[in-house]
Amino acid sequence: MHPTxxxxxxxxxxxxxxxxxxxxxxxxxxxxxxxxRKKLPCSNLAHxxxxxxxxxxxxxxxxxxxxxxxxxxNDVLSAHQPLGxxxxxxxxxxAEVGGIAQFAGGVPAMCDGVTQGEPGMDLSLMSxxxxxxxxxxxxxxNVFDGALLLGVCDKIMPGLLMGGLQYGHLPMLxxxxxxxxxxxxxxxxxxxxxxxxxxxxxxxxLLASELRAYHSPGTCTFYGTANSNQLMAEMLGVHxxxxxxxxxxxxxxxALTKAAAHRVATITHLGGxxxxxxxxxxEKAIVNAMVGLLATGGSTNETMHLVAIxxxxxxxxxxxxxxxxxxxxxxxxxxxxxxxxxxxxxxxxGGMALLIRELLAGGFLHExxxxxxGPGFSxxxxxxxxxxxxxxxxxxxxxxxxxxxxxxxxxxxxxxxxIKLLSGNxxxxxxxxxxxxxxxxxxxxxxxxxxxxxxxxxxAFKAGQMNRDLIAVVRFQGPxxxxxxxxxxxxxxxxxxxxxxxxxxxxxDGRLSGASGKVPFAIHCTPEALAGGLIAKVQDGDMIRMDAxxxxxxxxxxxxxxxxxxxxxxxxxxxxxxxxxxxALRRVLxxxxxxxxxxx
Length: 600
Description:
By secondary structure, this protein is of the alpha/beta class. It has 23 helices and 16 strands.
């Protein structure tokens, strides 16, 4: 093992000793000796049987496992639309191996693409906790011996795992739908967005471009949070090997869904391969997921999501762990926004099997982990292929089919990976450096221009008020302020200013995802403005230094001056329909580094 990987893993194990032991003890106590449904009183069991007349005989048989299906299906998310027909497919596949499956519940699933820059985005991060709660409610009937969790995108996969881990004595697999085929190139798409922002083209041309980018069912093809989730799921060992990036609506995709159904029915406590989720999501698995994220320059959102997933399993990680690993793990993948290709390019270049091969060979991953495919991470050196209508596994490639997409440890794209921790009097923040082509851009010193929303910044840009060197400070965007929405409306104006030759940076207590590209930023700034963070006292013209090289985030104003300043009040709360119902939840969200969760 690489010494840094060993050191960070030992630190996490030691830090988590009490909470992890308590969690595992609860899971051990919940384990049963027979089908969980048979422990119910007769009247309770009858209610379950009443909803499934065709299941009566099977559910009364002590030898047959019952698998719960929890789905984030809806027609709004392209990545989740294919999940609509999965339950029938899964029920048939589970029956083929002597089990029974019931649809246990649906969970809400927001599309960040649809709500981007709109009021609905304020609910996006909080939807993760709602999903976790919904999973717990679905499993609380206590009639299931295992579960399949159907979901992909930004908050959905983390929420499914956060909830599923509360029933971690059960085996569970995540079941994805796969990416859509490649449409318009991501760089071309963003150039057209920038031309629209400059007034060079109209809305019809912009919409035509967007329709070419988002053109069919399946996950968006850029390497944002949704695809970072899928990579992490495989690194955690909760996907079948190679399941992450097989295209939606293909024969192999359907075969993988059937294989997942077969597998979960095989690894319940009623058989000889009992593999509870609590043992799959271990400290070493969490480190593997962190390494995979860093080596690929994945989404900064995962610095919150993975914290929350780990905490749900009694494992405590923080941004120091990410920072130390990032300084040791090389950057091995370049796909948009870190490169020209997309997630389909990554799959064609060798995909997960090749990435894992490289990282295992360099001692960057723990091989001795439990996975849903069985013990040992070497199982994930294989990739699925179709044979007579079924998914079978063969050895994955040993060399990259496209060195411009997946590099080797001998010749990485960069000696350190894509995420940096910045800290200083402004707090702690995350900077993604893997997408910054010019190393000088990782250090920006400029006067502040302060905003309380991304819409204010957009208006200032359109009014020509930002044509100068600046660091945009966008505050009151943290978890407690407005739910910590994505701030993608910031990207195009700031990118245009950079293109015009200005020195530009961004500091915010809000979020940007893996879709963010060439603009240097310090995001997830914590403590947030509403929780007493110094970002609330920044004024227009204050000099700010953000420097990834020295890991610094500094407001260059003396203490005496700051002491005399009044903390600025946040803007009025949203009056959007239904948003008031989330006020109580928002007020108790933890800080970004603690996972921004109200339930953990």
